[in-house]
Amino acid sequence: MRTVHVPRTSKRKEITRRGFKGKAEKAAKQLANGLDMGIGVNENPITFNQFALKWLDLYEKERGAKPGTIRIRKHEINT
Predict the structure, then answer these.
(1) Model confidence over 1-18: pLDDT tens digits?
(2) Pairwise CA distance, residues 48 & 61, whole Å
(3) Basic and acidic residues: which segments have biased composition (predicted)?
(4) Which segments of 1-79 does DSSP mark as H helices, in order?
(5) Are 13 and 7 in contact (CB under 8 A)?
(6) Residue 63, exposed/middle/buried by CB under 10 A (0-12, 13-18, 19+)?
(7) Which run of H or of E encompasses 15?
(8) Residue 5 and residue 15 in contact, taking contact as beta carbons nearer than 8 Å
(9) What is the pTM of this model?
(10) In the predicted model, is pLDDT for residue 22 greater than 70?
(11) Which of 19, 51, 60, 71 has the fewest CB atoms within 10 Å, measured from its CB?
């Protein structure tokens, strides 16, 4: 995580975050390549709730999210 540096003048300096555009472009290219190879998006249709729970499992494993965060996300998904 990047922090906001406070110089001696006591003025805040904003730090620009980057990287999302590159990740989004990579995901879009992978999807386009899959479509070109005949792999359809709807070959295995699942509900949003099922998808969100799968995402939550991956999120919990990869990020090491706190139990409270997972509990809140499950509640939001099931609402």
Answers:
(1) 455 656 677 777 777 766
(2) 20
(3) 12-22
(4) 20-36, 48-63, 67-78
(5) yes
(6) exposed
(7) none
(8) yes
(9) 0.45
(10) yes
(11) 19
